[in-house]
Amino acid sequence: MKLWKFNRTDVVITLKNGVIVRGFVEDFCDASDNAEEMDSLLVDVDGTLREYFEDEILSISAT
């Protein structure tokens, strides 16, 4: 998945557990810079920053 393409955009993310998240991507974290060694997105969801890892994401689209 090319998560870096969504940096600084509004997105809708469907997680593998069925939860749908809408928010603004504040930052992309490359696997080489991440302790979990996996790409992730830092998403502002209603004023709260949440990190979503690539293995949690079923699909993502820009809005």
Which features would summarize this protein structure in a list?
single chain; 63 residues; mainly beta; SH3 type barrels; five-stranded antiparallel β-sheet; 5 strands; globular
What does this structure look like?
There is one protein chain. It is built from no helices and 5 strands. The protein is mostly beta strands and 63 residues long. The chain has one domain: SH3 type barrels (Roll). The chain has a 5-stranded antiparallel beta sheet, with no helix packed on it. The radius of gyration is 11 Å and the shape is globular.
Layout of strands and helices, then pairs:
Layout: E1 10-15, E2 20-29, E3 40-45, E4 48-53, E5 57-62
Antiparallel strand pairs: 1-2, 1-5, 2-3, 3-4
Q: In CATH terms, what is the fold-level topology? A: SH3 type barrels
Helix count from the secondary structure assignment: 0
Kindly, what is the distance between the CA atoms of the first and last residues, rounded to a whole number of angstroms? 17 Å
Mean pLDDT across every amino acid position: 96
Helix content: under 10%
Oligomer: single chain
Global structural class? mainly beta
Taking pLDDT < 50 over at least 5 consecutive residues as the criterion, the unreliable ranges are none
CATH architectural label: Roll
Strand content: over 45%
Order of strands across the biggest sheet? 4-3-2-1-5
Q: In the residues, how many domains can be counted?
A: 1
Radius of gyration: 11 Å
Q: How is the main sheet built?
A: 5 strands, antiparallel
What's the CATH class label?
Mainly Beta
Shape: globular
